[in-house]
Specification:
Blueprint (H helix, E strand, L loop, with lengths): L13 H17 L11 H21 L4 H28 L6 H31 L4
Helix pairs in contact: 1-2, 1-4, 2-3, 3-4
Length: 135
């Protein structure tokens, strides 16, 4: 019995759900606690990169019929996930007095997992598209 759930929307993708949930935590629990001096650097970067991941997944899903179009968005989402990891690491290491270090570590793990999920999604989608091509 196949226990895979049917994907009918980008919202059905675990990586979308996980990255959206992590983005909400970043925006509610990390960004507001960083010092004002980081407004145009670390805060701005965290806002942009964490928000970009679910957006890119949604955009890529709309181009799922195009291998190169879909893959570009998945690759861009992986890049944003990596940027978010670096920014969270900086927040944790530079401002431990402002942010919850354990929460930063949990978010770093969540974004690391998202990166792996995105990579696997790109590989699986390629395999799926190849199997479903008619000779």
């Amino acid at each position: 019995m196949d226990e895979r759930k049917k994907i009918t929307s980008f919202r059905d993708l675990d990586v979308y759900q996980n990255s959206y949930a992590a983005m909400l935590i970043v925006m509610e629990e990390i960004v507001p606690k960083l010092p004002e001096c980081e407004k145009f650097d670390l805060i701005d970067q965290l806002r942009r990169s964490s928000k970009a991941i679910p957006r890119l997944i949604a955009e890529g899903y709309a181009k799922k019929h195009q291998k190169s179009g879909f893959q570009k968005y998945i690759d861009d989402a992986m890049a944003e996930s990596n940027e978010t990891i670096v920014s969270l690491s900086e927040a944790r290491d530079i401002y431990p007095q402002y942010v919850d270090v354990k929460l930063c570590d949990q978010l770093i793990d969540a974004y690391d997992k998202a990166g792996r999920q995105l990579y696997n999604l790109g590989v699986a989608w390629t395999d799926f598209k190849s199997r479903n091509r008619k000779p």
